[in-house]
């Protein structure tokens, strides 16, 4: 049964609070998500891409130099609603989402890493999540030639069997694409006020008892976490090969 998806009713949580220590050789005056890509903050590109699928309500989880992000978006005039959830201390990917719980209205809600771009049909991803009656869904993509990402193992019906942290894997491994859909009940797996990682602390513990699925995409995946990949991202976006929905 196909479940109708209204993306305008799904909140988007973007994780953009990290320090970006590995990127500081190239970007040292702003948070990682605001790294400039051909004259635009990376976060602008990411938000525009997500909004092209009909999402309108964005919650930015900010931390390190969060005032830079806040000031940039407070001055913007568009049809999007942009809210902020600020971490006074680093809480990790899971902890930041838990902190934002008070402003998350929808179930499911979309979570996106603020330092990576995965070319995926987000409306189709939402349909997949609802039709699977999933607790959590994760966009996964092929590892290609990358050997420094954790891998994701899929079983029958694309249900996720396990996670491996940066074990090298092979070119046919799936990797986490940095986009997730959570039922709001999934926040019960995260302790408030404590630093926690989605990949290390939440997902491995949830797969034993909950319906967690991997949505496969063959679209472009790139993160800007290190100077080499940041430069690669500049080249990719300058060629305008990224297509919106």
Provide key terms for this protein.
alpha/beta; Spore Coat Polysaccharide Biosynthesis Protein SpsA, Chain A; 24% helix; 6 helices; globular; 245 residues; 13 strands; 9-stranded mixed beta sheet; single chain
Task: Tell me what the structure shows.
The protein is an alpha/beta fold and 245 residues long. The protein has one domain (8-238): Spore Coat Polysaccharide Biosynthesis Protein SpsA, Chain A, CATH 3.90.550.10. It is 24% helix and 26% strand. The protein is built from six helices and 13 strands. It has helices spanning 42-51, 66-74, 92-99, 122-131, 198-206, 227-238, and strands at 12-16, 36-37, 40-41, 57-62, 81-86, 109-113, 116-118, 136-142, 151-154, 160-164, 174-182, 212-217, 221-223. Strands 1, 4, 5, 6, 8, 9, 10, 11 and 12 form a nine-stranded mixed beta sheet that branches. The protein has a two-stranded antiparallel sheet with strand order 2-3. The longest helix has 12 residues, at 227-238. The chain is globular and about 45 Å long. The two termini are 24 Å apart. The model has no long low-confidence stretch (mean pLDDT 87).
């Amino acid at each position: 049964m196909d479940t109708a998806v209204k993306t305008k009713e799904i909140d988007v949580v973007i994780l953009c609070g990290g320090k970006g220590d590995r990127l500081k050789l190239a970007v040292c005056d702003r948070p990682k998500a605001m790294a400039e890509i051909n004259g635009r903050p990376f976060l602008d590109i990411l938000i525009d891409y997500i909004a092209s699928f009909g999402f309108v309500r964005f919650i930015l989880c900010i931390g390190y130099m969060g005032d830079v992000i806040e000031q940039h978006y407070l001055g913007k005039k568009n049809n999007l609603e942009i809210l902020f959830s600020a971490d006074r201390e680093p809480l990790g990917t899971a902890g930041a989402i838990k902190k934002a719980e008070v402003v998350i209205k929808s179930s499911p809600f979309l979570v996106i890493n603020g330092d990576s771009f995965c070319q995926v049909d987000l409306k189709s991803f939402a349909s997949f999540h609802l039709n699977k009656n999933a607790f959590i869904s994760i966009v996964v993509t092929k590892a290609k030639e990358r050997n420094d990402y954790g891998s994701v193992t899929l079983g029958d019906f694309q249900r996720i069997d396990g996670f491996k942290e940066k074990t090298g894997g092979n070119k046919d491994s799936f990797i986490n694409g940095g986009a997730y859909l959570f039922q709001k009940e999934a926040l019960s797996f995260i302790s408030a006020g404590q630093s926690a990682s989605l990949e290390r602390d939440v997902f491995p513990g949830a797969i034993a008892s909950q319906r967690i699925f991997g949505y496969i995409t063959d679209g472009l995946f790139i993160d800007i976490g290190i100077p080499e990949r940041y430069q690669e991202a500049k080249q990719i976006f300058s060629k305008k090969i990224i297509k919106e929905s």
